[in-house]
């Protein structure tokens, strides 16, 4: 019988096989046993009220099917989809709200373990919000005003969220024309839930416009707020070296994993594990030190700021425990498998929940409080140290790990193209216009146990860069690329097409740029805006040779992200079967109608070859519409010399550059 591959990650597959031989169940086994409900999976089941659930099935369900109340299949599919977008927007935006209140506590002197790390970023955000800064004004006063102004974005009842004005004017005009400019995050979430209640909104087009509106409240509100505040508090990322995969765990040290999405506690743990007292305590328990690793999006946060190694994304969390080397794993919110607790009983790992919003029966709970952040971090680290002595020999110890370069923020990408004095997106635009770079793809989303996990990410990453497509990656998509060894400049030399390779060699970057966690998809929005404002391509986000791909998505957060990208003008392709497949009308609106109105669209496609073809087709058609040089591998437009680091240093010293304009 042919072996079924469950993960494209060789190290993960090795642990999975070890688990099977020891009769240990993982998400991969459960995915194999638990097949999706075909009616619910396609969006044809309505359970909004107790008259149902109603299932609309059969050949003529689209035209003739009705729920007990009379709701049609397009209405039911549209409502189900909107509820997914609402839940995803609520998750990211609630995270952002906590970050905003943390910034306020820091500004008020109530969270003394934190500080304003990036004053320049604080001032940049203050300028966007029309808040006075500089001229001797105390930094904490500026931070307080920024925090209060951004907190208003959650409860505002009328008007529009602050960061909408960061989008290109033409993009904003499209939103205003179709009535999808969000007022406040909570207002849009509440109204969307009301619309989906029994007997309210039955127009599928109107329901889907609401999905775009609530998602824009996340992308240009919640997620963007979170990214900016995280940078202000902990530093705006710049490239840093790290490592990825299960080989990051050390047999002779205490291994502590931070897992989830909220970075503030993880930042404190990064500080605490390096305290001499903590290291001495670990040695008193027989360990040679303390080794901190990350999982999921918290991993991305501490990787891109501190080089803390990552064990991977969503489907790797159980496998990390199965190495037998993890002494404690601390979790907060989002993408946490409750199965971790039962699995941990087979080993020695302590599973520690830290949020009142996300408790798991059987787990140890240590409530996080930003007012006592380091005290709580020390308690967690001591718990891991104390558990080191209970470590068993049993486990699948995998030595493999890969180097990664992470931390390409909007600000650093701008800087690396011209230095401190000429920072801009002109070189990237010029490379696209000349045909060196065919286009840009945001490769994001979760990894999924219903396919060979991380396999679709790996396939698309290599095929896209072979075709001279620059990739920006976030979330578990970044983890998939990192654990494959794709996040290094050397990847360009091995896999990238000739034009992309030339750009990467000249600037000294990987062909896949790690932008951070899933909330940091907002960095892609600001980068796309900067490219539009730089000129030479489109005068709005829509129409640029750019595509978003989430090949293994699984979370409602991914739906919200896909919607705010589509509304912003970027076509998005999701892997797997469509959650609205049952309705041809809903599918038509999300593809053709959205593209006509916003220049963005949302597709679902299970075949990775077709995902690749569709992405390249969108990019090539955008180039044609923009009247750019036709993409031909190895053939470029007007010759311009890419500026290397030596030339940029000359500019920073005030010397006249000896190379071309970029």
- Principal-axes shape call: globular
Give the amount of beta strand, in percent.
5-15%
CATH topology of the largest domain: Rossmann fold
How many independent structural domains? 3
Question: How many helical elements?
Answer: 27
User: How would you classify the quaternary structure?
Assistant: single chain
Question: What's the end-to-end separation, in Å?
Answer: 56 Å
How do the strands of the widest beta sheet line up side by side?
12-11-10-13-14-15
The SS-based structural class is: alpha/beta
Profile the largest sheet: 6 strands, parallel
Which CATH class of the largest domain?
Alpha Beta
Query: In angstroms, what is the radius of gyration?
Result: 24 Å
How is this fold's topology laid out?
Elements: H1 10-21, H2 27-33, H3 38-41, E1 45-46, E2 54-55, H4 61-64, H5 73-107, H6 119-128, H7 139-155, H8 169-177, H9 185-195, H10 204-234, E3 240-244, E4 254-260, H11 263-272, H12 276-284, E5 290-295, H13 296-306, H14 317-321, E6 328-331, H15 339-344, E7 350-353, E8 364-365, H16 373-387, E9 402-406, H17 410-416, H18 426-434, E10 439-443, H19 455-466, E11 469-473, H20 475-482, H21 490-495, H22 498-507, E12 512-514, H23 521-534, E13 546-550, H24 556-568, E14 572-575, H25 584-598, E15 602-605, H26 608-625, H27 645-653
Parallel strand pairs: 4-5, 4-6, 6-7, 7-8, 10-11, 10-13, 11-12, 13-14, 14-15
Antiparallel strand pairs: 1-2, 3-9
Helix pairs in contact: 5-7, 5-9, 5-10, 5-24, 6-7, 6-10, 7-10, 9-10, 10-23, 10-24, 11-13, 11-16, 19-26
């Amino acid at each position: 019988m042919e072996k079924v591959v469950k993960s494209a990650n060789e190290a993960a597959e090795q642990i999975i096989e070890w688990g099977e031989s020891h009769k240990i169940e993982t998400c991969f086994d459960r995915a194999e046993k638990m097949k999706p409900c075909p009616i619910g999976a396609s969006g044809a089941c309505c359970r909004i009220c107790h008259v149902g659930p109603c299932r609309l099935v059969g050949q003529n369900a689209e035209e003739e099917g009705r729920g007990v109340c009379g709701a049609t299949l397009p209405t039911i599919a549209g409502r189900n989809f909107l509820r997914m977008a609402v839940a995803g927007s609520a998750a990211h935006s609630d995270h952002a709200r906590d970050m905003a209140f943390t910034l306020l506590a820091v500004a008020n002197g109530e969270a003394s373990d934190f500080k304003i790390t990036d004053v320049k970023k604080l001032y940049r955000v203050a300028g966007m919000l029309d808040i006075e800064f500089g001229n001797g004004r105390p930094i904490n006063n500026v931070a307080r005003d920024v925090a209060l102004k951004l907190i208003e974005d959650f409860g505002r009842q009328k008007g529009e969220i602050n960061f909408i004005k960061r989008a290109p004017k033409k993009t904003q005009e499209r939103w205003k024309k179709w009535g999808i400019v969000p007022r406040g995050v909570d207002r849009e979430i509440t109204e969307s839930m009301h619309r989906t209640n029994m007997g309210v909104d039955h127009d599928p087009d109107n329901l889907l416009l609401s999905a775009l509106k609530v998602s824009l409240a996340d992308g240009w509100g919640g997620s963007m707020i979170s990214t900016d505040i995280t940078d202000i508090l902990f530093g705006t990322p710049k490239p840093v070296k790290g490592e990825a995969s299960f080989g990051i765990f050390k047999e002779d040290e205490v291994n502590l994993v931070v897992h989830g999405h909220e970075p503030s506690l993880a930042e404190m743990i990064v500080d605490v594990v390096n305290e001499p007292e903590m290291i001495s305590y670990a040695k008193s328990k027989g360990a040679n030190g303390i080794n901190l690793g990350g999982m999921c999006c918290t991993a991305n946060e501490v990787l891109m700021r501190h080089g803390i190694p990552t064990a991977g994304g969503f489907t790797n969390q159980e496998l990390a425990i199965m190495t037998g080397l993890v002494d404690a794993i601390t979790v907060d919110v989002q993408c946490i498998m409750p199965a971790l607790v039962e699995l941990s009983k087979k080993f020695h790992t302590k599973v520690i929940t830290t949020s009142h919003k996300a408790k798991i029966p059987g787990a140890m709970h240590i409530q996080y409080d930003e007012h006592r952040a380091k005290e709580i971090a020390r308690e967690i680290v001591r718990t891991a140290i104390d558990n080191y002595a209970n470590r068993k020999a049993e486990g699948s110890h995998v030595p493999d790990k890969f180097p990664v370069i992470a931390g390409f923020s909007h600000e650093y990408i701008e800087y690396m193209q011209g230095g401190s004095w000429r920072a801009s997106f002109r070189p990237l635009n010029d490379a696209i216009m000349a045909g060196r770079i065919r286009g840009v793809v945001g490769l994001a989303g979760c990894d999924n146990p219903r396919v060979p996990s991380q396999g679709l990410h790996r396939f698309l990453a290599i095929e896209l860069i072979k075709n001279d497509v620059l990739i920006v990656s976030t979330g578990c998509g970044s983890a998939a690329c990192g654990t494959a060894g794709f996040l290094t400049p050397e990847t360009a030399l091995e896999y990238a097409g000739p034009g992309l390779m030339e750009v990467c060699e000249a600037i000294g970057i990987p062909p896949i740029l790690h932008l951070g966690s899933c909330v940091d998809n907002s960095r892609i929005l600001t980068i796309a805006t900067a490219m539009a404002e730089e000129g030479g391509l489109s005068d709005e986000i829509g129409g640029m040779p750019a595509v978003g791909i989430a090949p293994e998505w699984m979370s409602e957060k991914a739906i919200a992200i896909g919607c705010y990208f589509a509304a912003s003008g970027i076509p998005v392709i999701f892997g797997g079967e469509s959650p609205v497949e049952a309705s041809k009308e809903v599918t038509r609106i999300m593809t053709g109608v959205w593209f006509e109105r916003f220049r963005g669209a949302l597709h679902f496609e299970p075949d990775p070859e077709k995902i690749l073809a569709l992405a390249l087709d969108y990019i090539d058609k955008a180039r044609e519409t923009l009247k750019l040089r036709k993409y031909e591998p190895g053939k470029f437009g007007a010759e311009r010399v890419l500026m290397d680091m030596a030339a940029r240093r000359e500019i920073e010293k005030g010397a006249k550059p000896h190379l071309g304009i970029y």
